[in-house]
User: Fold these one by one.
Assistant:
Number 1:
Amino acid sequence: MVIVLLWLTASVAQAGTFTVNNFADFQNALQSIALDPANDHTININANITMTGNVAPIAVNAGRSVIINGNGYRIDGGNAYRPFFAHQGNITIRDLTIENARAQGGAGGIGRSGGGGGLGAGAGLFVDQFANVTLENVQFSN
């Protein structure tokens, strides 16, 4: 019985507060949130960040929140990456500069008929229909 109780205790997810000092921390925080959508989360950015890869979309269950405290720092997409894809939940981003972000659309069909290219929308922040996003003192720059 003790083993079962320990297992149940270990499997219960907890709300997370993440301290971010570099891109790996940022990537890990967003991935951890993606794996725990049933809780509220806070990300505290404590340094300027330059992205070197993609990150997970922000998605928490309806009624749950993610707060990102930028603390006056910058996230630089390196002219190649999108820092934020708000998919679902209540998301607040505060005191942050988002710069040099990019969302690359697809090239479309090749050949005589051609075809539509993919939509490259929301370079710094893409807000999906299931997300409610609040921005406080956030600047976008290229």
Number 2:
Amino acid sequence: VSIYKGGQEEPRSKVCAEFFYKEYIVDYALTQMDPIQISIWNGIVMGGGVGVSCHSPIRIATEKSVYAMPETAIGFFTDVGGSYFLARLKDNISNGLFLGLTGHRLKAKDLLKWGVATNYIETSN
């Protein structure tokens, strides 16, 4: 929120530029990792949370998971590699297009159904 407000007050702010530069470097570095990254989504997964987890080959959702790319709601673009990831969802590219353009929220088992998550578990297990 502070980055958003800072960007509204001073769109070319050095603080905003440095924040996003560092965030995108981390997101890219995670895509280049040799060890397998496993992401467990047990709560809200949005924005930067998507960036550090969506490129994992194993993405586990729980009944507590809520996923979205809400940047479009504030006039931003789908970032953190989301446009790359969403364009490659299984079975239906229109699902990724819909999620990227609308910021629609998916919960729990819908993450698996839409191909965003690769696995689903109940936290009681």
Number 3:
Amino acid sequence: MMNCIADIEFVDIKLPKKVYEKMERVVVKLFIDLGIDTYPIDPINIIKKLGYVLRKYSDLPVYEQLKLRRKELDATSCYDPELKTFVICYDDTKNHGRIRFTLMHELGHILLGHKEESELARKMANYFAAYALAPSPIIYLYDCQDANELATEFFVTEKCATYCFRRYTNWLEFGGRIKNYEEALQKMFERANNVEERGSVS
């Protein structure tokens, strides 16, 4: 079982470049496979399209709700052998931005194949969630000028928007190169939203 306390702590994250790219590839493949071509994305719809079961804390027996809230868990996920699929339970009393991040975080654990909790798994799921909610090439496509605009366009929390905009500005400073696996994603969004093609920065 994977447990989630939704908190974005990216400042000290240091992972090999290939690990970031692996996570980004998983997100891009997911969106292309499911035809996710508009923002803000709908995590609940994505999870349902994958055939996973989604349960709100408020729908669980009271004793289970109390146990989860006592642990201050925003979500939990596990594979159910009887249902033959993954089940994600989440705290539906949180604000929408936090719920969206939490659900993508749990989805990250599942799609990245995490089997047990660890600091590394949590940080990877955080990066997966933030990239899925607001990838730098799509931020560029929408021409967001600051974190506030990003938060509005992509419907994320202020904390998530601050991180994503910092990641985006770093990306721009290093040339804004759109990776080969991101090109298909960007073109799909351009076609679906009639957005003028911008291409890479460099």
